[in-house]
């Protein structure tokens, strides 16, 4: 796993751990290097003292090559107290043959000095350390009247010093491990506390993805540190602005809805005035010729048809004007009511309206929301279509969707309008008239029903708007805004 993919509460302790390991390696190496240098100087000093004493004691015996005298001196030197003591000592003549050694059984006289003594030593008087054998080798050339008379070879036991070195190494390792664990845990705890306000802010931001932008409570803001109070306050100002904009958008949507109905007022008045005129004529006929049975029957039929026409127009208007949302599902009659409302507007603009309603029964969609969408798009189509041209509204149902298509013969929706209708605009809600408010409101209603909007060209070159509403699950009408 890459380091940048880890959460910051894990990255910081891990970084501290890596840093502490690096520091531990560096400091341990320096401490051990200084310890080795100190021990080497100590061995060198003790070896010099030992060899100086032997040289003085053996010089006469070496000149005479008195083997027994050399043995006697070597035997007494082996009992030297101290941490570093010689394990083997060899006295050789100038010709390189052994005069005597501290272990005459293994190294007898008159043989050459063994290679394990001569090879490690590069320079007289300098200590050569072999850690594997836990020994230090040293050689001292003995002079008599400035003439070499032989050499002294010594092997020193340095096991106590190496044991001390290992003890220091493990002490460093365990101490550094303990410090690393403690500091990593402290970093995890501190970063966790530091990130708590960030997690709080992140939680409220993630909640906003669902459309719920709640401000952070004042007591949470008060408990945060000064560094986080400013982001919290900025988020609360943003939440307030979003809430105000949502309220403004809802208000504008309702105003646009009422404005759409206002555009139908003249057509509705015409649809009501025509049957009213006939009703008044029928009443006059009844007053004059009501005694005639045939005339009375025919006149009453005219009155009934006129009143039914007025009833249908008023019912369609009330269904669209009703501001509250009910739980009634969409039916075929709801679509036919819209035709009564839109037809007068189409007739006034001399637009030929084609109406295809293929619904057979109820659909699991809220009637008032779908009616509002159709009303907005149909009125826009009538407004965009030239006089004498066709505008088409069709509604069809499949197994899992309701498909609405509205086509006009106009010059097409501008790109800004398409962006508002499809929800790709760079601003959430237009402010003011003539800015695509009706299209934005239509997109908002479609999104509430989890619908999908597409805009293309129709067969006649105009605009074709297609909306698909999923109907697999029953829509909870109480949550429709």
Would you give an account of this structure?
- With 481 residues, the chain is an alpha+beta fold.
- Among the domains are: 3-167, 2-Layer Sandwich (Beta-Lactamase), CATH 3.30.450.20; 326-481, Heat Shock Protein 90.
- It contains 12 helices and 12 strands.
- The protein has helices at residues 8-64, 67-77, 115-118, 159-208, 218-223, 226-263, 265-289, 293-321, 332-348, 367-384, 415-422, 437-448, and strands at residues 85-93, 98-101, 128-130, 135-144, 147-157, 329-330, 352-357, 363-366, 390-397, 401-407, 452-457, 463-470.
- The strands form 3 sheets. It has a 5-stranded antiparallel sheet. It has a 5-stranded mixed sheet with strand order 7-9-10-12-11, with helices on one face. The protein has a two-stranded antiparallel ribbon with strand order 6-8.
- α1 (8-64) packs antiparallel against α4.
- The longest helix is centred in the N-terminal third of the chain and has 57 residues, at 8-64.
- The chain starts with 7 loop residues before the first helix and ends in an 11-residue tail after the last strand.
- The model is unreliable at 473-481 (pLDDT under 50).
Quick overview:
This protein is α+β, with helices and mostly antiparallel strands. Among the domains are: 3-167, Beta-Lactamase (2-Layer Sandwich); 326-481, 2-Layer Sandwich (Heat Shock Protein 90), CATH 3.30.565.10.
